[in-house]
């Protein structure tokens, strides 16, 4: 490799170390390491305040959060979902004991297309699991309307949508349940972690119970629960990071705006996420590389990689083309043309709050003149 210091698609933000150490001292003094401890409760309260939502169940990762969300509603039938997402979205449906049914995406937002969702509804459909891809809101009005008219549960995989606001409210407050991921690669992280945004206290309590083995008290177990608890260490990390998030989100926006200004008119390149839209979180900087660009998408991916720049093809291959899903009728050849085209053309450029200007200039230069 030519460059000693590789540039990855993302780099995690970290708390100020003294802030984290001070919380660790609290943990050392209580010697409580898990089981809904004081640090978790502080993190939950601070997170709710930061996001502007009241009822949050914090869990150990978003995959678990998705499974719990589906199980909470007893979903075991068909779940209409997007083929253009991280594989965990569909895996969670299977782990919940249900069956994914893929609906094609909107070609501009790459979020699931409400008309395509409605066309997939059968008597076995029980829920819609939509993804706010790259933190761009789904057509929540149309999906909500479809869910209401057909009596379906509407769950959002909001793993990318930390702190996004839409129509004057937190995007995660929309739908029956929304799931956030706090994995290291996301906008906000607790190393590993996730959360379910609930509409009321009763829902939160039910989900917390399911995630604590179904244990009500020392002698009472009321359901076949499992373990989705976040440790006090992870909670301390998240709690210490929250105060840095305003600055981190602002810095992401600066980086995304430089990409946008310098790449948006480049022939053969389509920039997908306009960072100037209020309420967005600059989760990623995805571009589509169309056939009139001098290189193929993979050609550009490799050109950058040769220079030590690790752009990523999120999301390729589409979930519907993976071996465990490709036999589904909704995944057959000829279906999902827009998702499959997006998967062929997509490339996410490196984006994180402290991406150096000189590094970004090098990336922009290479994309502009490959
Ligand atoms: C990262 C991600 C997940 C999984 O999150 P984990 O916390 O790593 O389990 C699920 N869905 C989407 C869209 C993601 O990007």
Automatic annotation (TrEMBL):
Listed GO MF terms: transaminase activity
Keyword line: Aminotransferase, Pyridoxal phosphate, Transferase
InterPro entries: DegT/StrS_aminotransferase, PyrdxlP-dep_Trfase, PyrdxlP-dep_Trfase_major, PyrdxlP-dep_Trfase_small
Gene3D superfamilies with a match to the protein in the record: Aspartate Aminotransferase, domain 1 (3.90.1150.10), Type I PLP-dependent aspartate aminotransferase-like (Major domain) (3.40.640.10)
Highest taxon of source: Bacteria
A Pfam entry, by short name: DegT_DnrJ_EryC1
Record-stated family: Belongs to the DegT/DnrJ/EryC1 family.
The protein's name: DegT/DnrJ/EryC1/StrS family aminotransferase
């Amino acid at each position: 490799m030519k460059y000693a210091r590789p540039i990855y698609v993302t780099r995690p933000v970290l708390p100020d170390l003294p802030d984290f150490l001070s919380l660790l001292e609290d943990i050392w003094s209580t010697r409580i390491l898990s089981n809904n401890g004081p640090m978790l409760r502080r993190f939950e309260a601070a997170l709710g305040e930061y996001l502007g939502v009241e009822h949050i169940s914090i869990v150990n990762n978003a995959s678990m959060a998705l499974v719990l969300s589906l199980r909470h509603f007893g979903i075991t039938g068909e779940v209409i979902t997007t083929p253009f997402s991280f594989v965990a979205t569909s895996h969670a449906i299977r782990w919940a004991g249900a069956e994914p049914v893929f609906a094609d995406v909107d070609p501009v937002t790459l979020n699931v297309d409400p008309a395509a969702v409605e066309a997939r509804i059968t008597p076995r459909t029980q829920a819609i699991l939509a993804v706010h891809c790259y933190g761009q809101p789904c057509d929540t009005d149309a999906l909500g309307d479809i869910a209401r008219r057909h009596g379906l549960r509407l769950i959002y995989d909001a793993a990318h949508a930390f702190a996004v606001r839409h129509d004057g409210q937190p995007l995660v407050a929309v739908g029956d349940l929304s799931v956030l991921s706090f994995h290291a690669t996301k906008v906000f992280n607790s190393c590993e972690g996730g959360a379910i945004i609930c509409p009321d206290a009763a829902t939160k309590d039910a989900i917390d119970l399911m995630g604590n083995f179904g244990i009500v008290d020392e002698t009472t177990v009321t359901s076949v629960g499992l373990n989705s608890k976040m440790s006090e260490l992870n909670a301390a990390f998240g709690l210490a990071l929250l105060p840095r998030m305003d600055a981190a989100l602002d810095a992401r926006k600066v980086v995304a705006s430089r990409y946008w200004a310098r790449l948006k008119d480049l022939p053969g390149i389509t920039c997908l996420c306009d960072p100037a839209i209020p309420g967005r979180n600059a989760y990623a900087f995805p571009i589509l590389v169309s056939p009139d660009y001098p290189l193929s998408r993979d050609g550009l991916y490799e050109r950058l990689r040769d220079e030590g720049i690790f752009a990523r093809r999120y999301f390729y291959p589409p979930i519907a083309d993976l071996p465990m899903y490709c036999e589904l009728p909704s995944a057959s050849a000829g279906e999902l043309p827009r998702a499959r085209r997006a998967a062929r053309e997509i490339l996410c450029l490196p984006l994180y709050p402290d991406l150096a200007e000189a590094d970004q200039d090098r990336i922009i230069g290479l994309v502009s003149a490959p």
